[in-house]
Amino acid sequence: MNPSLTHRMLIIGASDAGISAALRIRELDPRAEVTVVAKDAYPNFSICGLPFYLSGEVADWRELVHRTAEEITEKGIHLLLAHEAISIDPEAKQVSMRAAGGDVRRIGYDKLLIATGAESIKPPVEGLDSPGVFFLRWMADSFAIKRFMDKNQPKRAVVIGGGYIGLEMADALTRKGIAVTLVEFAPEVLTTLDPELGALIRAELESVGVRVITGKAVQRISRDNELQVHNNTGETEAADMVLVAAGARPATDLARSAGIGIGAGNAISVDRTMATQKPGIWSAGDCVQTWHRLLERHVYLPLGTTAHKQGRVAGENMAGGKCEFQGSLGTQAVKVFDRVAARTGLKDQDAADAGFDPLTVPLVTPDHKAYYPGAEQLHIRITGDRSSGRLLGAQMVGHRTSEVSKRIDIFAAALYNKMQIRELCDLDLSYTPPLSSPWDPVQAAAMAWYGSREKQH
Ligand SMILES: Cc1cc2nc3c(=O)[nH]c(=O)nc-3n(C[C@H](O)[C@H](O)[C@H](O)COP(=O)(O)OP(=O)(O)OC[C@H]3O[C@@H](n4cnc5c(N)ncnc54)[C@H](O)[C@@H]3O)c2cc1C
Question: So what's the pLDDT on residue 455?
Fold first, then answer.
């Protein structure tokens, strides 16, 4: 790095947030010298695709790359891979790095971005370090799982956690011919949705042979000839492998040790420009707190889409711009075998906690005109504020052909614009019988919400 430059941009983390920031800086400031450091050797890989690599649907892990290292360096971004940032000195504006071989060096910066992402949560379960027990977060995790499966040909797996990663892995392992038992502590899987919709995902899992155990916590994993997974009611599941998918927590050790403030969800505290409280240091992605557009406060809501946007905002501001992250609505979708579950905004209880007067109304309706072959039922739950009529959130479960994720995106766009539920009916949405109805299911759900609210008045 050339110390005579005054635009030395250093980015710690080469995934969604870090690379988005680097690309934006490059677009805006041709004089900037941009260096991106990563502790692993896999810059800009889609870790969201790991379950599909492990299922075999994506044949080669190299296909998961968003951009290759060559494509990144061709943009004038300097990549320093297999270098772990071990400390930041904000006063001297230097970061110490340890290379894979053990050598430590210090690199100076004018502006720094911390984009260190998240780590898998290790729940309080004894025996998590037993051979055959895995987490899934990094490329290296997926290689370890793949090696294990190729070598040992496991027949039975226990997946701990019924969130979206646990569900995707239940799907992936089943596709590999492995008998899967999924254990979830909550009363229903996929707690980001109401239990009525979670139950549909559970039914989908069970229909393909996944055993689903809810309302029980795994306490201990022991290993004799085989793995034994013990839950809190004394039952034991035998397994050849265990996948722990108990959520993610922000990777903040580096920031904490540099005295950078911590905020919501124990994530790095940033404002909406993605600046930390330390001058010259920004942060973005799964390691930071996220502005919630509806709640109008920071929460911890780690998602790939958010990391890309926050990285871009941080990059623009590091390059001298003035922009703000516009906020997340927690919009997400997951495919589980032939079903898709999606959500955006607030659920009933979240809305009540935030001081709204929520009303949630369910609707089951065909995804397109029933006379055209292949119609599937869409289950929609729409939440609005009873008194103002404002849309607050929506949830949906349907067949993978039912455009569930794009339909939830209509709700997300409406939420972004603080629309009334009534206004959804005025939207000029497309219609052709094989794909929709003159009133799209989104609009039918809006009407159902209004009908229900009127009945209550
Ligand atoms: C299995 C799986 C499936 C997912 N599916 C989805 C999905 O479908 N949709 C969705 O929106 N999101 C999904 N996510 C979440 C999404 O992948 C993350 O939100 C996103 O990767 C966050 O990007 P990031 O850049 O903040 O951090 P990360 O992707 O966590 O990357 C962190 C980077 O920091 C580097 N790093 C960390 N510490 C150091 C250090 N000390 N020194 C140097 N480098 C360091 C790492 O090497 C890495 O390059 C999924 C996640 C997983 C694990």
Answer: 86
Question: What residue type is 138 in one-letter code?
Answer: W
**How far apart are alpha carbons 440 and 433 in whole angstroms?**
10
DSSP designation for 89: E
The pLDDT of residue 6 is above 70: no
Q: What is the mean pLDDT of the chain?
A: 96
Q: Which atom of ligand 1 is nearest to the CA of 305?
A: 11
Query: d(Cα 449, Cα 351) in Å, to the nearest integer?
Result: 16
* Cα–ligand 1 centroid distance for 411 (angstroms): 26
**Ligand 1 centroid to residue 120 C-alpha, Å:** 10
Phi, psi at 214, each rounded to 5°? -115, 160
Q: Are 194 and 381 in contact (CB under 8 A)?
A: yes
pLDDT on residue 114: 98
Element (H, E) at 201: helix 195-207
pTM: 0.96
CA 269, 275, 281, 287 torsion: positive or negative? positive
Name the E strands within 304-350: 332-336, 339-345
Which atom number of ligand 1 is nearest to the Cα of residue 137? 53
The length of the chain, given as a count of residues: 457
If you measure from the C-alpha of residue 307 to the centroid of ligand 1, how many angstroms do you get, rounded to a whole number? 8
Cα 137 to ligand 1 centroid, rounded to whole Å: 7
**Token output for 385:** 């504020």
Q: Is 13 in the pocket of ligand 1 (CB under 6 A)?
A: yes
Amino acid 154 reads: P
List domains and CATH numbers for the chain. Answer: 8-44+64-119+249-318 (3.50.50.60), 133-246 (3.50.50.60), 341-456 (3.30.390.30)
Q: Are 399 and 392 in contact (CB under 8 A)?
A: no
pLDDT digits (tens, 9 = 90+) for 35-92: 999 999 999 999 999 999 999 999 999 999 999 999 999 999 999 999 999 999 999 9
Using an 8 Å Cβ cutoff, are 66 and 42 in contact?
Answer: no
Are 307 and 286 spatial neighbours (Cβ–Cβ below 8 Å)? yes
Cα–Cα distance for residue pair 115/19, rounded to 1 Å: 9
